[in-house]
Design a protein that fits this description.
- By secondary structure, this protein is of the alpha/beta class.
- The chain folds into two domains: 162 residues, D-Maltodextrin-Binding Protein, domain 2, CATH 3.40.190.150; 97 residues, Periplasmic binding protein-like II (D-Maltodextrin-Binding Protein, domain 2).
- The protein is built from twelve helices and eleven strands.
- Helix 2 packs across helix 10.
- The longest helix has 23 residues.
Length: 329
């Protein structure tokens, strides 16, 4: 009887070990049901468009439908929380921007911990901004804009899609590096900032290039420079801010894909490989280039290192610019 009990106990322990192993290891057939990609913004924005573009090509590779779930609100925080609380089973992922991944922890009391609640999958792309002014502003270069801002401290207004948004961070970095003072005007979205720029209610914009370009080509705004590390293919005649008189200036918005932190590593690696294959497709590269974006790609580990460096970068910038944390999303 003692031997029978011992064998039964060992069998039970073995079953528990095997069960635990299966809990950590994804089934070889993954995925076996549709995958949800959360977009923490309303339809129509850059993350939404990029997400749909990628999932159209990814779904056939995985053999499963990928459903876009737009969870806008609170500057992306609501959608991020949805994913942070989702099961780590590979069936919920998110595409989010630099603000969500790296700026928000310095400005908001978040209902999640970015480093503990999310697992990096892949860095998608970077997109520069466009420094533009209303035609009534008497400047035709970045150097002239700096001179005017120094001559009229606080009188020039620059608009953005919100506190901590890409345009806000571009403007904050510009004023810190040039030792100038301009007044930030926060809108509930980029459309409002562009409308007021065209109307002359604000004088300066440093927001995403693509939505601003049609107004520049129509003569409603004047483009001065782009904010990336190199000239934008979509605007080859415009210098970068660094070329135009602010050495070392570089700020680009970027997008990346992540999952709940408990997602098994084999699933993370499978998704990374599949997304990388999609990003390498000539059609996808051409469509991203047409939107002014440069594809990044890389491993989950590479994205994680870049992500950490961006968190540190924006923390330093926010402190130097004296930007006050918000009480909530």
């Amino acid at each position: 009887m003692k031997q029978t009990f011992t064998r039964a106990s060992l069998a039970l322990v073995a079953a528990c070990v095997v069960g635990a192993a299966h809990a950590q290891t994804p089934p070889a057939a993954y995925p076996v049901k549709p995958i949800r990609m959360v977009v923490p913004f309303p339809p129509g924005g850059t993350p939404d468009l990029q997400g749909r573009m990628l999932t159209d090509k990814l779904a056939p590779r995985l053999g499963q439908q990928i459903v876009i779930d737009n969870r806008g609100g609170a500057n992306g925080i609501i959608g991020m929380e949805v994913v942070a609380r989702a099961p780590g089973d590979g069936y919920t992922i998110i595409i989010a921007t630099v603000g969500n991944w790296s700026v928000h922890p310095h400005l908001y009391k978040l209902p999640y911990d970015l480093q503990k609640d999310f697992a990096p999958i892949i860095h998608i792309a970077t997109t520069p901004g466009l420094v533009a002014v209303h035609p009534s502003v008497p400047v035709k270069s970045v150097k002239e804009l700096i001179a005017l801002a120094r001559a009229r401290p606080g009188e020039l207004n620059y608009g953005s899609s919100g506190v901590g948004g890409f345009g806000h961070m571009c403007g904050a970095l510009f004023t810190v590096m040039t030792r100038t003072k301009m007044t930030h005007v926060s809108y509930k979205g980029l459309a409002g900032a562009l409308t007021d720029l065209v109307a002359g209610n604000i004088q300066v914009s440093m927001n995403s290039a693509l939505p601003t370009i049609p107004h520049m080509k129509a003569g409603r705004v004047r483009g001065l420079a782009t904010t990336g590390a190199k000239r934008a293919d979509i605007l080859p005649d415009l210098p970068t801010v660094a070329e135009a008189g602010v050495p070392g200036y570089e700020n680009s918005t970027w997008s990346a894909i992540g999952a709940p932190a408990r997602t098994p590593q084999p699933i993370i690696e499978r998704l990374n490989r599949e997304f990388a294959a999609v990003l390498a497709m000539p059609e996808i590269r051409e469509r991203f280039a047409a939107a002014g974006s440069t594809i990044t790609g890389g491993t989950p580990e590479q994205f994680h290192e870049y992500w950490k460096s961006e968190i540190a970068k924006y923390g330093k910038l926010i402190r130097e610019a004296g930007i006050k944390p918000e009480s909530g999303g």
